[in-house]
Structures are given as structure tokens and as C-alpha cells.
């Protein structure tokens, strides 16, 4: 048989009467009398007062009964001890959580510091790169100025001697469409010879699907008229085939063109080729009179195009600068990919460690709570 009824278990007699656990029977009775004056049904007819009077009566009987009071004191002592253990456990939990949050904040701060340092390095590299570009631009301009200084002066209008002509002055860069019918260099050379006369060398780039093709054509020494006619035809609508474009390999119009325009007089001498292979010059340059090339300079030997510069792309210094820029960008891309992979791995590892720590902390707290409940 239970020592306390359900109704007695539901109340705290010490709290109801407002006395300490160490209060004597006299103190308990005095407190009861004081409260009963306020809530006795004869003095206070309200329902709340009657319920209150009933509860303080139960509290008085519990505290005046030695067995019930001893049982109640033991239960209260256990409750206080359990509350103290729970408070201690909560303190430990708070310390563990605070420590975990502190370490997470430190890790985030380290990541922010690394990111800031990396950004500072990137900004510094951008400044250095801007400086490199300025230096390269200055070098390119110096190169162009030096090339212009080395170029032979334009002949005077009254001079009867043609200007010096190099192999590059008789070389054209042709741009062929993706669907060009010229598959090989010999095919292109045969067509050029049949239409424009002797050709020294023809280089044809390898075809790529959907891409335009480039070719370099060096006309034979003396075949200036054929070179000029090929240039005019492929820039003025009478191309070898639709889509073909022509440019001077040297980038600018050779000096001999202007000289020939001011000194030419014999259309038949414009191209020193056999009559059987001389094409019609319906698209010849608009000279006031046809140029005469009777005293064309003789070249000792044609240049070897196996080692000649590539006239189909930017030449000389521009090509070197472009290659250096492409190599630098490739190195930067590789470094950035390596840094990204390293950051991803570090973040994933740190996340797994934090999850494991949280699981271990939760399991430890659960075991401690179970241990406390079992006591």
C-alpha cells in the first residue's frame, strides 16, 4: 500500500505552507493557522478558497505525520540531487557545444584568411601581368619602329630604277573557304600557274572541319604582273573560287606597286611569262599606263619555304607574345584548378570531422542521461 495518495503526491506541502524543510511542528502549525484564516470556507465562501483550504490541510497532515514527512524529505532530497546532476550535465554539454562552435569559427576564420591571401596574390599577379603587357606592347612598338627604319625608302617618282624586291614582296596570303576544292598544294599551284604564270612555292595548311584554310603563294622572280593580278582578282570579285581572299604576306602593299604605277608603259611586259600561259588582265591595277618590268632584278635562288616564316598568322614578335600569353593563361588555369580541388577536399574533410564530433557528443550526452535516470 502506497504511503502517499495520488492527491498528496501532486502537492508540495513545504511550498504550500511557506515553510522550510527544517521547520518544526510548531512552525508548521503556525503557518497553517495563518493561511486558514484567509481561505477557511466560513470566512471565504469562494470555490478557490475551499480548494486551497483542502490542500493546506493535506499539507499539514503530511508534515505532522512522521512517516509521511520522512518519505517526503527523502523524495525531495533525491529530486534536488537529480536536479543538481542535471544542471551539471547541462553545464558540460554547454562547454562541449561552445568548444565545438569555437573550433568551427576558428576554422572559418582560417579559411577566410586563406581566401584573402589568395585574393591578394591574385591582385598582385594582375598588377604584374598589366606591367608585362605594357612592356610587351612597348617592345612590339619598338620592333615595328625598327622594322620601319630598316625598310628601304620609297623611290622618288623621277627614279627609273625599280625598288629592291624581296621574295616576300612577291608572296601573297590566300584564305580559302571551308568547302574549297583545292585539297592539296599541287592542285592549287597548277591552277595558279595556269592563270597567273610561274610560281616558286605554294604552301597549303591542313584542312580542319568547318574551318577556313590558309595558303602562302610565292610568285617566281620577275612575275610581278601575275602577283598583282592574283591580288586584284581575289580582292575584287574575280577570285579563284567563291570565298577566296588575298592579302600581301608582308602586311602592306610592296613598294614596287607604287613604282610600277608611276613608271609603267608596256602592258605586255607586266608579267614575264610565256604567251601560252599569260592570263587576261581584265582586273589589272588602275595604272595610268601599264608598268614596264624589262629590267626586273634576278634572284639567285628561290627561298626554301620549309623554314620560312608563317605568313598565314601574326608574324614575328606578335606570334611570340601570343604564345607566351597562351602559355601563361594555361599555367594560371592549371593552378586555379589545383587550388579548387584542394579547397574542396579540405572542406569535405572538415565537414566530416565536425559531423563525427557532433555524433560523438550527442552519444556521450545520451549515455550520461541514461546513466543518471537509472540511478
Task: Tell me what the structure shows.
This protein has helices spanning 6-9, 13-17, 25-39, 47-64, 66-150, 185-196, 224-233, 255-263, 316-374, and strands at 171-176, 199-204, 213-219, 245-248. With 375 residues, it is of the alpha+beta class. Among the domains are: 6-64, DnaJ domain (Helix Hairpins), CATH 1.10.287.110; 167-297, Alpha-Beta Plaits (2-Layer Sandwich). A 4-stranded antiparallel beta sheet has the order 2-3-1-4, with helices on one face. Helix 3 (25-39) runs antiparallel to helix 4. The radius of gyration is 52 Å and the shape is rod-shaped.
Kindly summarize this structure in a few lines.
Keywords: Chaperone, Cytoplasm, Nucleus. By secondary structure, the protein is of the alpha+beta class. The protein contains nine helices and four strands; from the N terminus they run αααααβαββαβαα.
Give helix and strand order, one letter per element, not per position.
HHHHHEHEEHEHH
Q: Averaged pLDDT, please? A: 78
Identify the overall geometry: rod-shaped
Low-confidence stretches: 265-318
Total of DSSP H or I helical runs spanning 4+ residues:
9
- What is the oligomeric state here? single chain
Strand percentage: 5-15%
Subcellular location: Cytoplasm; Nucleus
Pfam families: DnaJ (PF00226)
Region (Disordered): 107-166, 323-344
Keywords: Chaperone, Cytoplasm, Nucleus
